[in-house]
Write the structure tokens for this entry.
Amino acid sequence: MKKTYVIDTNVLIQAPYALDCFEDNSLVIPLVVLEELDGLKKTEGEKGANARTAVRRLEEYRNRGNLLEGIQMETGGSIRIEKNFVNVQLPEDLPDDKADNRILKVCKGLLEEKKQDEQIILVTKDIVLRLKAQILGIKAEDFTTEQISEDDALYTGRCEVFVPEEMVKEFKKKGVNVKDIYRSDEEGNHVSQELVENEFVILKADQSTKKTLLGRVHGNKIVPLTYKKSKPYGVSPRNVGQYFMQEALMTSAEEAPLVIIKGMAGTAKTFYSLAVGMEKIYNNPNGEYRRIIVCRPNAQFDDDIGFLPGDEQEKIAPLMRPIVDNLEQILDSDDKSRYDDETMLSDKIMEVFERGIIQTEALNFIRGRSIAKTYLIIDEAQNMTPNQVKGIITRAGKDTKIILLGDPNQIDKPFLDERTNGLSYAAKYMKGSSYCWQVTLSAEECERSDLAMDAVKRL
């Protein structure tokens, strides 16, 4: 069946390459979308850059012919701009002066004129607009090219398997072959376990399950953790997830240039990442990294920062407060006396920033840069779009380690969800890469406080 897709502005703003993702189907761009792109093209940050990219792509098609009549695309489909249907009637409570309703008019007009074997589909990231479309009998979909599947979302970067008792001693010396491990199904039968490169593994001896070993998939073997006994900046792992996280963070940028850590608040993602960075620069000053850069994308961060008073650091300071909170605990590990002298503690933190050991930057300010020999932490990475995370990873300079931290279930940015955000997108497409190590921390591994743990179970 022939499909005609009506494209909303927010699709092009989030994914400016979206026009090339609809195969041999017909694309319709309502005139109001051009007006919105025109209004956004001078905007600072990712939104403005994507608007300009989308406009340039449309200009390429315009140079081939008349966009009002339709232009053939490389994909085999066609693209055209629709300026008609201004007189299509909508319900009285959907006023004509709203851009979304003008898009609905185009959809409704196309629907009334469609051929028998044609399907009209509105593609938008706006959930409310999809609901409005349904009320009017218009089929509406999200832009799914960047959306990961439910199965992909379930990957945690870790698994639990059994190993023959006689291989336990052998594991500590040279690891075990992946063919020798297995899991048990509901009936107790041995089932082989498919493993992914760099996946972390909890090994249990099959004759005495109290014997537990921790390892990582490396080629056709499961090898022991290298940094199990490490204490970066005096911090010790408190659970299995933190052992795996420590292994990924401590491993050099040459072997593990990309680390993806997912988990709910309180699982010490940011705390541990900072502790390892401080360990590498302060306690092992061998030149592995020049500095630590911390970035926290936020729903308002990238769009509105240019309008805030002060320089870059003053603008982003409120958003970096969680980083300072973690540094307070790292620089003074004594829980009882840490806040006895607030001035001294504040001076310690200021020294770290003044010496350039840690730098904080806005996401749109590092866009396009090639950052070398840097320990780069992207906190709250679930608020990045797939296009943003691609831009960060593909511009990694030599000897730079990129750490993506976040909780896919805590999205603050419009038009993103747990399956379309940049963190989940990177986790899916970098899964199995020898350059990417990833782990998901469980709710039971929350270390924030007894209250936080209790709330996880109750709320």
User: Anything to note?
Assistant: The domain at 148-224 is CATH 2.30.130.10 (Archaeosine Trna-guanine Transglycosylase; Chain: A, domain 4). The longest strand covers residues 212-218.
